[in-house]
Specification:
It is elongated, with a radius of gyration of 24 Å. By secondary structure, the protein is of the alpha/beta class. It has a 5-stranded parallel β-sheet, with helices on both faces. The chain has 9 helices and 5 strands; from the N terminus they run βαβαβαβαβααααα. α6 packs across α8 and α7 crosses α8.
Length: 207
């Protein structure tokens, strides 16, 4: 089961909301329900990963309008749209606009669980990657300016003697700085150090 991810169910029909929530909770998913798109947007926190299960037709803000509002906020939460037969063309247009999936009424429980499980697993991969990158960035922040200089040359593939010449220090001093960089970055070997630095854009100046 994916960790710390929530399925948000938005539907104006209380019976459908409760039915979907019970189905998902029985499979171990964390669920929050809302009776309107407006209520969901008020509570929405982009920092909370998960997926959104929303009906197309609702009083006030429609499911499509809710998706458009999330796009306008640059929110990355994947959306599953629930449609009636007459809403399929609308759902197809929504998918072209970035909706992840759509499912027709009457909802097939197994189909819902498959879609939600797959989308949350994808979200978990993204969340894990972001967490790892944030951790590497924090380690780089703990380096001294000189250690960052040495790291830059190491990532560029320079040997110790070249680094020493470029920085105007002795090869022995480079070795000391190199050892400290490896320790602070928690890198077991040079190739791992290089991969971590490149993954956060260290040479591009983004870290």
């Amino acid at each position: 089961m994916v960790d710390d991810l929530t399925v948000f169910v938005v539907d104006d029909d209380e019976a459908i909301r409760d039915s979907l929530a019970a189905l998902l909770q029985a499979e171990g998913f964390a669920v929050e329900t809302f009776d309107s798109g407006e209520a969901f947007l008020t509570a929405f926190d982009a920092a909370r990963p998960g997926c959104l299960l929303v009906d197309v037709r609702m009083p006030g803000m429609s499911g499509l309008e809710l998706h458009e509002a999330l796009v306008a906020r640059a929110a990355s939460i994947p959306v599953i749209m629930i449609t009636g037969q007459g809403d399929v063309p609308t759902a197809v247009r929504a998918m072209k606009a970035g909706v992840a999936e759509f499912i027709e009424k009457p909802v097939d429980p197994d189909e819902v669980l498959e879609m939600v499980g797959r989308l949350l697993a994808e979200q978990q991969v993204v969340a894990d990657a972001r967490g790892a990158a944030a951790d590497v960035a924090k380690r780089i922040d703990r380096l001294t300016p000189r250690e960052r200089d040495v790291l830059k040359h190491l990532v560029a593939g320079a040997p110790n003697k070249v680094i020493a010449y470029e920085l105007g220090i002795s090869p022995r001093t480079v070795e000391v700085h190199r050892a400290r960089v490896m320790e602070k970055m928690q890198a077991r070997h040079l190739s791992e150090l290089v991969r971590m630095a490149l993954a956060v854009g260290f040479l591009d100046g983004t870290s």
